[in-house]
Amino acid sequence: MMAAPTGRKPTYVWGVGLLWISVFTCILFFTGFTALNILHRQQAFQQKIVQADIILVRLNNQLGYGGFIHNFKNAVLRPDEKDRYLDAFGQNALAIKALIEQTEQHFPDLTNEIKNLGETLNEYTENAEFLRQTELRQPLDIDPIVRVNDDFAVQALLNLLQSNRDQMTETLSQMESRKIVLSVGAAISFISAITATAGLLIYARNRSRIFRAAVEENRRTSEMIEDVGGAIFKLGSDGEVEVTNRKGRAMFGALIERQSVPLVDRMLETFPEIALDDPLLRAFLGRKVDSEISLYTFPDQSQRYLRIFSAPLSNQNQGGAVIEITDVTQNMVAEKLEDQNRNILVLGQVARSVVHDVRNVNATLRFTLERLKGQDLGGSTPALITNALSALSVSDKLAKRLLDFATAGRDEVTNFEASDVLTMLRSLSDGIAQDQILIDVRKAPAGARLTGSPNAVLAALINLVVNARNALVAAGQDGQITVHLDSEELHPSIPGWVFRVTDTGPGFPQEIIAGSRSSAPTRSAEGYGLGLSIVHSVAVDMGGYVQLSNRAGRGAEVSIHLPAHHSAEPLMQTAQTLHASARVLLVDDSMMVTRLLERQFAKIGIATHQSHSAKAALLSLQTHQYDLVITDYDLGEEQSGKDIAAATHELQPDVPVIVFTKTPEWATEAFAHLNVEIFGKGNQTETLISRAKSLLARSPEPADAAFSTKNQ
């Protein structure tokens, strides 16, 4: 939110700018007036210089050749023309007197020199009058009488006039220099003042623009606050609400209006169940609350989850705070529903595992009882066998009901990012951790994608983390549980990902590790059975397997190996189309298992056909010739792998059958009367592929024509 441009800085800028303009304006006026005064004085000096030049020229004219003294001497030397020269002398004298008067007027400092010149002129005038009246005609007689010593006076006046002129010229030059300096200063002051004025105008324009932008931003912010999802409150120093938005008014109504009773007391009265350390109370006390969620019962008896955030206004000495309250009831309910759905999915996974084992046990018991029923045991044994078979039928029905529940809780197969699963596990790890046991869920590598059920993988990881935590607690140890993801081939040329769960506890008992190498982990060791069974079931259903080990140092490690996502085709496409070139029939209710086998057979150039139900597989056996049949034991329905094996021996007696199951230990006895080979899913996949290659190498290429002729 942009604040309006207020504070000391703008005032400071304006003050400095105006002072700058004032100073340079004063300097401009001072230099201007001074330069103008110098200009006037310069003009006056120029006039005096011109006047001095005129006087000098005229004095030179009146005193020089043909002038005052020249005419006087000619009157002495030429008696016959005396009157003419004396008349010219008189005119010269009048002109010199006028020039003396001008000199006195313009050069008052030359008074003495002018006086001497005047006295010399008067002396010459008196001698001229004597010369006009005398009868003497010889120059030698007249000269001693009328001789006047005028050299000093005349030359001194001329020299002083010239000196005065030179001084005035120098002064004029100095004034010109000062005028130039003052003119430059005035120009600089003028430019500075103009620059400062322009700067202030630009600053004012920018401030105005910033102010308008701030006002507009405040307007938009106010609108945004009004429309924001949360309720916004601003507490004043008195602890009352000063500002709120529409959400705040709708959430608390009259409760936040200023009343005689303090706001905190009104809160305690409205929400009597809140404690003193409740985040809502702490927020309205002006204390810091960092996004805490709590459940509150409002006066209308509605219950709401509120996320509360409060930040005290530290720049105000008298208190105050900004509070944001968001109603997150829908989110919290959605999260709880998601947790419930996740729990249902986990229970469904457990149920499928239990049903799988129960059906395998029931099948084995039924096979055994039917074999005994065919023997002549006598006594009450046949009746007991019949009762046992009836009980097995009831057990099968119960298993089917449980299977229906498990199927309802079965998560949809999809492509998913491994990082999403680890992020969810990381968010749940705080609730799993205990005492000083640290759970470290690391980030997934980029591009880690899998195909299957993300919730099933999450359930498997939760089981492993809980198992590891329980092992540490039982051993009385503090420690660390680490979950991370690595890239590793599931099988040769089959890319995969490995979830590794390690701990610093006592490790697995050797019987657990030994059981995991053959098939599913044993269920006989307390504290491991059901959790590891779920993990094994999840991995196998996704086409992977589980490995258990004890680390070289200390602690256990469980590795869940899963195939990487590898398909541009729709995940849930049906595979009911029969292919004449298919040599191997793959029967399993898990599409991910059949697709993984299909990929591995394709790498060695063997075509396969997939069936995901016993009914579809039996139909394929009636209409298509195969060289090998690979089937799961439990197909999740009434008919099982035993029915597939029996139908294969009947319809295509020369075709070998391989049973590929999670629990090969149960299948061994159940298929004892049938000629089949049994392999465990997961870590025996490569052995299965190798054995299948060997069996197919013995069989000729499929002869569909012969099969069709035989069945006509």
TrEMBL record:
It comes from the Bacteria. Its EC number is 2.7.13.3. The chain crosses the membrane at residues 12-39, 180-204. It holds the Pfam family Response_reg. Gene3D superfamilies: 3.40.50.2300, Histidine kinase-like ATPase, C-terminal domain. GO terms for molecular function: phosphorelay response regulator activity; protein histidine kinase activity; protein kinase activator activity. Keywords: Coiled coil, Kinase, Membrane, Phosphoprotein, Transferase, Transmembrane, Transmembrane helix. InterPro entries: BphY/WalK/GraS-like, CheY-like_superfamily, HATPase_C_sf, HATPase_dom, His_kinase_dom, Sig_transdc_His_kin-like_C, Sig_transdc_resp-reg_receiver. This is histidine kinase. It comes from Donghicola eburneus.
